Amino acid sequence: MTVSASLSAALAALLCVLAPAARAEEPDFDKVARGLVERLRQGPRAAGRIGTWRDEPRQVWIDANTFRGPFGLMLDSSCVQWEGTKAGEYPAKFQSAVYEMHRKVQECAATRGLPSTVGLIYERMPQTRLRCDAKGCPNPDPTVHPAACASAAERRITWKDQSSYPSAATLFHELQHVTAHIDNQSTVDHNHPALHRLRDEAYFWEAHCFDQEGLLRTLRAEHERRLRAAKLSLSPPADLRKVYEAAFDSCAVPLRYQVRDHRIVFNAREIESFCRPYADYLMMEVNLKRQLTFGLMPLMTGCSARDPIRCPRSELRDPASAPAKAAAEAGILLPPDPAVYSPAEFTEWTWKACYKRYPNESESSPAFLLMDCSRSQRAKLDDPKVLEKLKAAGLSDEDVASLKAFNELAAAKAEAVGEGPGRWETFMEKGNGESAVKKFVPAVLARCARPDIKETSLCAELRADSSAIHLTVQLLLHWQPKTLPR
Ligand SMILES: [Zn+2]
How far is the CA of 135 from the centre of ligand 1 (A)? Predict the structure, then answer.
């Protein structure tokens, strides 16, 4: 099964329920698990791979009802029909899901770190039985439809949703419950998707290993929420230390939250080892955003002597001037002159010029907003009614021609940035690796070879400095999966 298939299945299945019968903690550890937990108490848990787990050599039907699969995890005969096989035949879907889970967990531990508590899943697998029951997982809330559920006390996972069987991510999630050491929320809060998902540790590790894009989306949204709540600005002079702390805290929530008794809590150093990479990553995004807004945006909306057009006369770019006011009344809004505008003024302009298409400015990157606004402004300049109003306000044919040329050029420049450094939001976290980076830089520079923007100050800057490209490349490389040591 591919990762994306198991992921979408896991997402579609919404969540899985920790059966109410399960106890929060468990005193009777087996010897190995006790040793692991002892090590947790002694030192940081983030280091390297979580053990050198080897697969059990033999996978067999040990009796009519039980298949012993990879890592000793037992499959109940109730799942045979969901496998599409007959009793006694080899359950290949189950086997590949367990191996897929193992591969992801090992890769995750090696590249991003995992606590040893998560390693307990390997201790639990030989004692745990996976059964399939479409009527399983009773939940008091009828609006919640779990894919699966787990009982730590009975070492049992029940798969309820046949369409997602046997997703590797959900299997991992349920095995976390079986360890009885990862749940940090009350069962009620864990089981309800609308309640405090962000502070849930089981969901955190699941996303950390199986859906990093999703985790970054969540962290980015939480970071932005915190910045708004604390009224922290990204415009100069921003307090970047506080911006960083807000990013770090967005990640640390599930590792700090704790309502379960006898559960080992993370110390500050351990939280740092897991959250610093996420905070660093979010700060790279912040820096790129700042670079785009305060470094490149003025070059996109500006009109310099290098540009291959005649710039609109200065009165047209002064919102207080009579011709600019008349143009605005006719629906033609020019982006504020970068020599004088503030980021707030630019935001206000995008709202006014693009309001109907973009009620929420965060939906799109500033470059794409500018591109769409400039194109729609350009289109309006072909409307005879608009032209009539502009003429009545005293704008000459030459003024109109300069406005058309200006908007065309601004759209072309914005497109070059939007398709280049501005694409960070759409592909950064995929970590496409070195080959993508090698293609990326020439692709950005190739856009600047287009005749209409080749000579602009924007492209001169991109060619000479490339700091926005450099930041983008850093982001691209950041999550590149490292090769696992053998
Ligand atoms: Zn769960």
Answer: 17
